[in-house]
Prior knowledge:
Helix 2 (13-39) packs across helix 3 (50-77), helix 3 packs antiparallel against helix 4 and helix 5 (117-149) runs antiparallel to helix 6 (155-175). By secondary structure, this protein is mostly helical. It is built from eight helices and no strands. The N and C termini lie far apart (43 Å). The protein has one domain (1-189). It is 80% helix and 0% strand. This is Pmp22 peroxisomal membrane protein. It is a multi-pass membrane protein.
Amino acid sequence: MRRVWKLLFGRYLLVTNTVSSGVLMLVGDVAAQEIESRLESKSTSLGLDWQRMFNMTLVGLSQGPLHHYLYKWMDVLLPGASVRTVFKKIAIDQFAISPIFIVTYLYSAGLLEGASVTECTAELRHKYWTIYTADWLVWPPTQFINFYLISPKYRVLYINAITMLYNVFLCYIKHNDDLVTQLTGKARKKEDSSDSVS
C-alpha cells in the first residue's frame, strides 16, 4: 500500500492529479444535479444527465494538468512557506489563476455541450462576477492552508477535495441562469441566451 501511495504521489503525480480532478468534478456535478432535481421537485426516477456528467468529467480532467503545473511553477517562483510567501501565492492565485480557470471552465463546458463561442462568451459575461466573488469567499482561506501547511505533492489532491464541494456550486451555476439572476439582479440578455445550453 505504501509503495502504491509513493508511486501515486511521486512518479505518477500528474496522472493522480488529473484523474482526481476528473472524478471530483464528476462527483460535484452529480451532487449539483441532485440539488437541481430536489429544488425543482422532480422525481429522482428521471435519473441523471449522463452526457452532462461525461462533459463535466472531461472538464475536470482538463483542469488537472493545469493545476499540477501551475502549483509547480508557483513553488519554483516563490519557494518556501513563510506567511509573506503564502500571501504572494494567494495573490497570484486570485488575480491570475482564478480568472483563467473560470474562463477555461465556462468555455470548455459550454463547447462540450454544443454551445457556440459567442454563446460561451455571453455566458461568461453573465456568470463571471458571480463565480469570481464566490472564489474570493472560498479560496484565500483554503489556499492559505494549502500553501502554509500542505506538502507540495499533496496540494492538488487537497485542492481537488475542496473543489469537489466547490464544483457543486460551479455545476449548479453553469446549468442554472436563474440563480445568477437572483444574486446579481441582472437577467441574461435574451439574444445572448437563445439557443444556449442552460
